[in-house]
Automatic annotation (TrEMBL):
Source organism of the structure: Thalassospira profundimaris
Residue intervals of the HTH gntR-type domain: 11-78
Annotated protein name in UniProt: GntR family transcriptional regulator
Entry-linked PANTHER family: GLUCONATE OPERON TRANSCRIPTIONAL REPRESSOR, TRANSCRIPTIONAL REGULATOR, GNTR FAMILY
PROSITE patterns given in the database record: HTH_GNTR (PS50949)
Origin: domain of life: Bacteria
Gene3D superfamilies, sorted: GntR ligand-binding domain-like (1.20.120.530), Winged helix-like DNA-binding domain superfamily/Winged helix DNA-binding domain (1.10.10.10)
Amino acid sequence: MSENKRQPARQSRRSEAYNSFTEHLLARDIRPGQFISQRELVEITDMPLGAIRELIPRLEADGLITTVPQRGMQVAHIDLDLVRNAFQLRIFLELEAARLFTVQASDKMLAKLRKAHEDVLESARENGITPELLEHAQAVDWSLHDTIIDSLDNEIISKIYKVNSVKIRLIRQERFRLTESLLQNVMNDHLAIIAAFEKRDPEQAAICLRQHLENARGRALGLGDR
């Protein structure tokens, strides 16, 4: 096989290994702060050793693992610096994306977003807040933010956001999760953002989104439910 043919295959294998690593990380099969070996990564991800060796530089560049002298590889641990930095980047990316989304999103897209959130609240009223509803609501939550970023159709921003999103999800798992008491607040925060989209008011959308993200950052920093 020529080098030109090998290259796409190697890139595909690295991407598969990366996706497997992040999936297992978010599934808590790999824990923040854990020391882990290449052999353990092979077992956990079911990827060949060669793919893991090629994966490690990317994980280091993305800040998901760190090589500690004489101790090996350590998975990123959740500390206050990570919380502050990850949320600061998230705010920078999402606020400008929301301004553009406000004027570019179709009415059909906005109606779909509104319905998804209203359905969550209606289900909570009619059936109570179940673990299944909390899981669905979390997916609806992430979907709004992902949709805003994806609408930019910018591969560079999407890659940066994806890496940061993994860190935000880890922070949520370690420091706070969507709970019964938070569900209504989060859905209403989102509906306020969607209302600003529907009015085609970019600045109001950015204001509502900033407040929502600052509330989440406050919870992650241990400042209480806001």
